[in-house]
């Protein structure tokens, strides 16, 4: 089926490391190994849902068949093999059962196409390889080795990052979807290391898609730096104690075994028993009639015509291409990526459709005039759906400039509308040096917003975004209230919670088997990084239009699963309505007294210096207090405060638990170091950092609330994190005093009272606790009376304190040892308290055991509102890790239900305030608290409204109670 004639003399020799361009395949001796399993998913999601006359889905079969036709036409090779996975379980599951355990099942429309694609491979007379117990990647690694040993160059037809470890002289990769060669330079760009070090980087960074654990807190960038510095994984682990960063050092020591397991998981086995000898992997003359019969059965009339034409050319298939594939084993400079992500099926190749999607062609368009934009608006009205994404010059939506907007109306059909791109050079060609460079042709922002406003606010057109909270703020600043909106990130989050991340790139790889263009590919990195407004329009088009396109594809794939998984209510009533609410909250920001923070920083600097002097005096010498290694040597070698405990690095542990134990024994130096650490963290994290976060545009601090980051549904605050400011310490109170109301306004803080204890009583149906809450009793005193048999009138503060510790400790699965340390009693006595507590409140013990059993059976626990909190470690063989997961399983439904109730309150809040004529603005959400800024004259009424909304957010067997405070600053209001 291929032309095995030698390439012309202008073509680089097969297996050479070409300096640029591509070649037609050299002398034909090379081997092409097609990653069939990876391509199936990419073909499925690249093309619209197509069905053949009998209703069988065939879009992936069509994409796969077109790919084989093009491969055989372009690759001047004698040997081509298609490699498939055999079953999901393989030898890696034997030593790590959770490997790929959380990958979702293939879409129902794809399942019948697996067998058809194997049939297609056989119809093309190509070897079809698979081996039970091994992955396709292992077979590819094995045949790459065999071919190289035989002196034959290899091209792996795939974009899978896991295969990049195989790239070396004589072994290259080619991504047929992007028409892009992948050599050492591309691997280095992806991982920051050469191909032979990829497995070490992957072992550290892990892979949430495949459930490769890695080392928590270490990403690809950090992993690459470490491997570059130390050479390989084992050398790094052997020298982990030399790592300067304390947290990183501790993680590498603690999770060294997981890193080694992760390396075994990602390292491909190139010693697999080959299903067929290497010599049999040759392209054979096809049975044309068998191939035509297969293609006709699928309804692929265009391909049939092409094959019939080739039958008249002595059986040679020539697709009209000039030979765009690289020679096997060559590593040419990749071509610029085409805007299109897949080839469109010819019109006659489109069988009856199962969906209403109508894709005339797959293309990305640069929209530079108003008429073209209006055509896209009309197209959106016709389809009724419009994926939207924005590009900006910064990641702070409250102050960023809107650089451009991308739209997609159907999978594969997308556009980019540049709005504020600058000229690429200092002076345009032909201009004098003193002339200003001419910006590229683009629509004025005001004009574009005027055209887009109607469709973005049209309730008959569904807008789709990914993390649309960001885009909402950009459009709101331009006078557009986008509605209605679906968010593919939140849909994924509702479906799969904390089982993996929900960034667009990660979801594209997980669900579409597609790697989007990295941001650094268009904007660069480090000191050479440019803002998006300086990206040339061709690169901006490919990157931005792809974002909108992938967003639509993810939505198309994930949205139907809400019904199948019975998660519609969670999405529609909790998470989706929250997008504009939180976006407006972020945009509002909070006023900070910069001088108060500056004064506090200076005060903390003086106190730190005093403490440092005290510590040095107690130690009898100067040393770096911030160095755990030096501190350990002082405490245990110099001062002989105990034997100490050394980790695998040989350094003494000086974490907070060690220092707290020494402090309890009366060693002043340990307490002073704890004091120093606390103040140093407050200074660096808050009093110094918050000053830098005050916006020069708004004069306020704008935190970002992550909507899809926690396993329980809670919001998390970042850049800066305003949720972890200490509440009870004097320093924490001083920091909160720097959060102030604007002139003429007050801050209003409304906080749920003991909501998690109330939920324990509700979810475990503990009648005694429910009665106590309904009667308005002091719950800790009431608990003490129940557990210790002491009448309320005889209750002492000490007994109440013990009951309080148990009440809150039970929620977090506290142990006798932990409770004992907290109360200053022996572990045995503390265990007796816990036992008595669970005997008295037997319903709680029953609920806890039932919850753990449910988690073990299903892999998740659920909140009262149906949100799933996944527990990947619940089946761990390691007892300590399993016990940790069990504690999480008990806490998650409680904390998650509290988060759901808070979301219900937040979603109802804007409407309730507006209906009452209140102009109060919600500023922050911190755990069980909401913070508002409200005109002074409205403060009392606003407090009444907010309390009513929060207390009415859920109707349970126990009352919800919200407490309000009003003040000029956060501390005063709280």
Automatic annotation (TrEMBL):
Residues 1-22, 317-352 are annotated as: Disordered. It comes from the Bacteria. It holds the Pfam family DNA_pol_A. InterPro entries: 3'-5'_exonuclease_dom, 5-3_exonucl_a-hlix_arch_N, 5-3_exonuclease, 5-3_exonuclease_C_sf, DNA-dir_DNA_pol_A_CS, DNA-dir_DNA_pol_A_palm_dom, DNA/RNA_pol_sf, DNA_polI_H3TH. PROSITE patterns: DNA_POLYMERASE_A (PS00447). One of its GO terms (biological process) is DNA-templated DNA replication. Residues 11-21 have a biased composition (Low complexity). The keyword Nuclease applies. SUPFAM superfamilies: 5' to 3' exonuclease, C-terminal subdomain, DNA/RNA polymerases, PIN domain-like, Ribonuclease H-like. In addition to polymerase activity, this DNA polymerase exhibits 3'-5' and 5'-3' exonuclease activity. NCBIfam families: pola, PRK05755.1. Belongs to the DNA polymerase type-A family. This is DNA polymerase I. The gene is polA.
């Amino acid at each position: 089926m291929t032309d095995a004639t030698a390439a012309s003399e202008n073509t680089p020799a097969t297996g050479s490391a070409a300096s640029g361009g591509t070649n037609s395949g050299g002398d034909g001796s090379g081997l092409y190994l097609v990653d069939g399993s990876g391509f199936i998913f990419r073909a499925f999601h690249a093309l619209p849902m197509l069905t053949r006359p009998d209703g069988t889905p065939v879009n992936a079969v069509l994409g796969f068949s077109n790919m084989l036709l093009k491969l055989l036409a372009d690759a001047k090779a004698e040997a081509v093999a298609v490699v498939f996975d055999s079953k999901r379980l393989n030898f890696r599951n034997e030593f790590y059962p959770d490997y790929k355990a959380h990958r979702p099942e293939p879409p129902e429309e794809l399942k019948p196409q697996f067998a058809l694609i194997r049939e297609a491979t056989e119809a093309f007379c190509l070897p079809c390889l698979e081996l039970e117990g091994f992955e396709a990647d292992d077979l590819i690694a094995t045949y790459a080795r065999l071919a190289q040993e035989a002196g034959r160059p290899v091209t792996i037809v795939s974009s899978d990052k896991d295969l990049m470890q195989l790239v070396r002289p004589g072994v290259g990769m080619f991504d047929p979807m992007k028409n892009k060669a992948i050599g050492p330079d591309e691997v280095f760009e992806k991982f920051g290391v050469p191909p032979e070090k990829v497995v070490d980087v992957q072992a550290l960074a892990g892979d949430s898609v495949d459930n490769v654990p890695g080392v928590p807190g270490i990403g690809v960038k950090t992993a690459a730096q470490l491997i570059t510095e130390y050479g390989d994984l084992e050398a790094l682990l052997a020298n982990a104690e030399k790592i300067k960063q304390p947290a990183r050092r501790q993680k590498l020591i603690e999770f060294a075994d997981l890193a080694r397991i992760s390396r075994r998981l990602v390292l491909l086995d190139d010693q697999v028993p080959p299903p067929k000898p290497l010599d049999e992997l040759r392209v054979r003359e096809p049975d044309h009639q068998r191939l035509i019969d297969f293609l006709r059965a699928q309804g692929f009339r265009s391909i049939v015509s092409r094959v019939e034409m080739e039958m008249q050319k002595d059986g040679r298939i020539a697709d009209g291409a000039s030979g765009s594939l690289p020679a096997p084993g060559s590593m040419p400079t990749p071509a610029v990526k085409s805007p299109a992500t897949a080839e469109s099926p010819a019109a006659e190749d489109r069988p009856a459709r199962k969906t209403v999607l109508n894709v005339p062609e797959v293309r990305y368009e640069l929209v530079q005039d108003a008429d073209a934009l209006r055509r896209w608006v009309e197209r959106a009205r016709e389809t009724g759906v419009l994926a939207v994404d924005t590009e900006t010059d910064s990641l702070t939506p409250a102050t960023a400039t809107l650089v451009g907007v991308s739209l997609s109306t159907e999978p594969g059909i997308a556009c980019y509308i540049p709005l504020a791109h600058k000229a690429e050079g200092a002076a345009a060609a032909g201009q004098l040096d003193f002339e200003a460079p001419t910006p590229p042709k683009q629509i004025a922002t005001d004009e574009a917003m005027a055209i887009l406003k109607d469709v973005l606010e049209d309730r008959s057109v569904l807008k789709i975004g990914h993390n649309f909270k960001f885009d909402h703020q950009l459009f709101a600043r331009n006078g557009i209230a986008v509605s209605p909106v679906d968010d593919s990130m939140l849909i994924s989050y509702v479906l799969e919670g904390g089982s993996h991340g929900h960034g667009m790139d990660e979801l594209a790889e997980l669900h579409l088997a597609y790697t989007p263009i990295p941001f650094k590919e268009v904007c660069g990195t480090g000191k050479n990084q440019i803002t998006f407004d300086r990206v040339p329009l061709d690169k901006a088009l490919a990157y931005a239009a792809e974002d909108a396109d992938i967003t639509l594809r993810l939505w198309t794939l994930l949205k139907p699963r809400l019904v199948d998984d019975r998660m519609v209510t969670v999405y529609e009533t909790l998470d989706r309505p929250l997008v504009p609410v939180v976006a407006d909250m972020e945009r509002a920001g909070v006023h900070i007294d910069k001088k108060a923070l500056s004064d506090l920083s200076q005060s903390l600097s003086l106190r730190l210096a005093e403490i440092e002097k005290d510590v040095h005096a107690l130690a009898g010498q100067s040393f770096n207090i911030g160095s755990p290694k030096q501190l350990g040597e002082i405490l245990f070698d110099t001062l002989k405060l105990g034997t100490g405990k050394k980790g695998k690095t040989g350094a003494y542990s000086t974490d907070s638990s060690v220092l707290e134990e020494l402090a309890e024994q009366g060693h002043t130096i340990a307490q002073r170091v704890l004091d120093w650490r606390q103040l140093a963290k407050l200074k660096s994290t808050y009093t110094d950092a918050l000053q830098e976060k005050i916006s020069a545009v708004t004069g306020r601090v704008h935190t970002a609330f992550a909507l899809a980051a926690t396993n329980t549904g809670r919001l998390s605050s970042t850049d800066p994190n305003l949720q972890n400011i200490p509440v009870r310490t004097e320093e924490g109170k001083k920091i909160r005093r720097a959060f102030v109301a604007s002139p003429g306004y007050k801050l209003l803080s409304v906080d749920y009272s003991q909501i998690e204890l109330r939920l324990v009583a509700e979810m475990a149906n503990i009648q005694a606790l429910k009665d106590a809450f309904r009667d308005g009793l002091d719950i800790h005193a009431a608990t003490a009376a129940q557990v210790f048999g002491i009448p309320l009138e005889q209750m002492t503060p000490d007994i109440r304190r013990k009951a309080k510790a148990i009440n809150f400790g039970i929620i977090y699965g506290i142990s006798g040892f932990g409770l004992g340390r907290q109360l200053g009693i022996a572990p045995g006595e503390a265990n007796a308290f816990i036992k008595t507590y669970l005997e008295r409140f037997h319903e709680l013990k029953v609920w806890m055991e039932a919850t753990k059993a449910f988690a073990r059976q299903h892999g998740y626990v659920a909140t009262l509102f149906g949100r799933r909190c996944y527990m990947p470690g619940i089946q761990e063989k390691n007892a300590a890790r399993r016990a940790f997961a069990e504690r999480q399983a008990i806490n998650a439904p409680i904390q998650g239900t509290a988060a759901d109730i808070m979301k219900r309150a937040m979603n109802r809040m804007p409407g309730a305030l507006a209906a009452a004529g209140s102009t109060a603005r919600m500023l922050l959400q911190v755990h069980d608290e909401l913070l508002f800024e409200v005109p002074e004259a409205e403060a009392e009424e606003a407090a009444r409204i907010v309390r009513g909304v929060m207390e009415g957010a859920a109707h349970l067997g126990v009352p919800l109670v919200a407490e309000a405070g009003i003040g000029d600053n956060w501390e005063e209001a709280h």
